[in-house]
Amino acid sequence: MKLRDGTTREVERDRLIPYVHRRCHELATEGADAVVVLCAGAFPDMDCQVPVLIPGRILPGIVRALIPQGRRGRVGIITPVRGQIPAAENKWRADGFDPVVVSASPFNHSEIETAAKVMADPDLELVVLDCMGHSSEYKQEFQRRTGHLVLLTSSTVARLAGELLGR
Hints:
Strands 4-3-5-6 form a four-stranded parallel β-sheet, with helices on both faces. Strands 1-2 form a two-stranded parallel sheet. Helices cover 42% and strands 13% of the residues. Helix 4 (112-119) crosses helix 5 (136-146). By secondary structure, it is of the alpha/beta class. The longest helix is centred in the N-terminal third of the chain and has 17 residues, at 13-29.
């Protein structure tokens, strides 16, 4: 996560879950019509009075819908932190895909070149920028460098939220 002073910190997802769950309830109580978890990690369902959009659960369904039936489901996954590669690989594999996972921080644009070289693999069906922090500029750069369809998690989830809210 990026802090106000511009530095970043890694926090274990399991430590965040109770806080995210509590905040979902608080937002619903305050009148929210829906809540978006601003992390693409593997969060569990949140029992809440309003819909809770969990990017890590939404994206695999969309990716599955974009891959023609009968194809292997070989997808490129860009996770923001090198240490998250094993977890991302396990998550996407459990979701039924054959993932190729590399890291590229949304806060360090220089990492895009190395990651894009791996993602230029012609056997990949598409690439997912699997972090809410990646920008549309990052997406455009990845598309240009890889020649693949690239899904930007933040805008995909935002569009779904807008659809739910009638906007």
